[in-house]
Design a protein that fits this description.
The protein is α/β, with parallel strands linked by helices. It has helices at residues 21-37, 57-71, 86-90, 132-138, 150-171, 288-293, 318-325, 355-367, 373-391, and strands spanning 2-6, 14-15, 18-19, 42-46, 76-79, 100-102, 113-117, 120-126, 176-182, 184-186, 209-211, 220-224, 230-232, 234-239, 256-263, 266-274, 281-286, 304-309, 329-334, 343-344. The protein has a six-stranded mixed β-sheet with strand order 6-5-4-1-15-16. A six-stranded mixed β-sheet has the order 7-8-9-12-14-13, with no helix packed on it. Strand 19 (329-334) and strand 20 form a beta hairpin.
């Protein structure tokens, strides 16, 4: 059986003020084409269909079109991520045609979607994004809630998966199993994962990760959340990554879809199918003279670019001069070669910092003292509560 694994479409997202709707239409078309060209038997979309809880109407229509196109070809399985509203994404899902499975309810965790090939059953276990503040109650098997952490709730979810799978395999030993999940997963080894600026912070209590060891006992784990395609731990635990670049931190990422093949004994192959980007992206750095005259930048004139000008003093008419050569420049900033970033254009991307770091710096600036543990705990609790409310909106 061949399955297409994708995630993190983020329909409705912009890029430094640029509307990406037309670009996302082209990417969705490539997903549909890949299903046909690679003889795919099912599609797995592991979260973050939309970029926000209340997406634009154009994005809802694009998703409806994509779901219609895909489901006329093969079964489609969908779970919500951190950006989606699970409730809104799941509205009407019980009315969808056979073969469309939009799984948004925590009560469905551990209940598979059953497929078949010549070698026997293939069970797909969709796990929606697990917000610990909700899932620790919903997935607890007794009166006490689970520990308030991503690892605790994902462990409980996987225990349900393994429990059902063991019972099913008792009658059908040849059964293969696939899990869909949306989480920040780390390997227990020294392996590091590649992160992007465009990913949402999902930390609870200062911790956002789940160990890859939690996913033992299944043949493949189709992950969503990280925007760079990569495996975590073993080859069968994979992020497909986003099919489009959503920040300049992703310039060097090859955007792709994953086509996985399951044989009689489990995972046989993972094929990466490159997604042609609607427009190239690049980062450019140098003095203004180098930026405007270097032959090395000739092929970037039509690209979305981030330009860092390194002159010691800010050049006059910086933005106008850069845009004369790079009309699609989205970020233009002055970064002196011998000093820190001192100025950036209004459209430039912020240096990523964590909210707790901002709070610590604010207290230090206002009071002259370091933030206390009680103050930091209060801020963290309020921030996480706001994040949770945003995710459930």
């Amino acid at each position: 059986m061949r399955m297409l694994h994708t995630s993190d479409w983020h329909l409705g997202r912009g890029l430094h003020g640029v509307d990406l709707h037309e670009a996302q239409q082209k990417v969705v078309s490539q997903v549909v084409q890949t299903v046909t060209s690679h003889a795919v038997d099912a599609v797995l979309i592991s979260g973050d269909i939309y970029d926000r809880a209340v997406p634009p109407v154009t994005s809802v229509r694009l998703w409806s079109h994509a779901l219609k196109e895909l489901s006329t070809l093969v079964p489609v399985m969908v779970t919500p991520g951190t950006h989606d509203s699970a409730t809104r994404l799941g509205v009407g899902s019980d009315l969808y045609r056979d073969g469309v499975h939009v799984v948004t309810e925590l009560s469905a965790v551990g209940t598979p979607i059953q497929l078949h090939d010549a070698n026997g059953p293939v069970l797909v276990y969709p796990i929606p994004f697990l917000d610990p503040d909700v899932a620790r109650h919903a997935l607890s098997d007794d009166s006490e809630p689970l520990e308030r952490s991503h690892e605790a709730v994902m462990t409980a979810a996987m225990n349900r998966v393994r429990g059902h799978l063991a019972s099913f395999r008792a009658a059908e030993p040849a059964t293969r199993a696939v899990v869909m999940a949306h989480a920040f997963v780390l390997s227990g080894s020294s392996q590091t994962v590649e992160r992007s600026e465009s990913e949402r912070d999902i930390r609870v209590g200062g911790v956002d990760s789940v160990s890859s060891d939690v996913f033992s006992g299944v043949d493949y784990v189709a992950l969503g959340h990280l925007h760079g395609a990569q495996h975590v731990g073993r080859e069968g635990i994979r992020y497909s990554g986003s099919p489009m670049r959503f920040s300049f931190s992703e310039v060097n990422q090859t955007k792709q879809l994953l086509v996985i093949e399951l044989g009689a004994d489990g995972l046989v192959d993972v094929e990466s199918v490159a997604v042609v980007q609607p427009r190239s992206m690049a980062t450019i750095s140098g003095t203004l003279d180098e930026v405007l005259t270097s032959d090395g930048f000739v092929g970037m004139t039509d690209a979305w670019v981030q330009v860092s000008v390194t002159d010691a003093a800010r050049p006059a008419e910086l933005v106008a001069k850069v845009r004369a050569r790079f009309p699609e420049a989205l970020v233009i900033r002055h970064v002196p070669a011998d000093g820190p970033l001192v100025e950036r254009a209004a459209c430039s991307s912020p240096v990523p910092v964590q909210p707790t770091e901002v709070a610590e710096a604010f207290v230090r600036y206002v009071t002259g003292d370091e933030i206390s543990s009680a103050e930091l705990a209060a801020f963290t609790s309020a921030y996480e509560r706001a994040l949770g409310e945003g995710r459930s909106a």
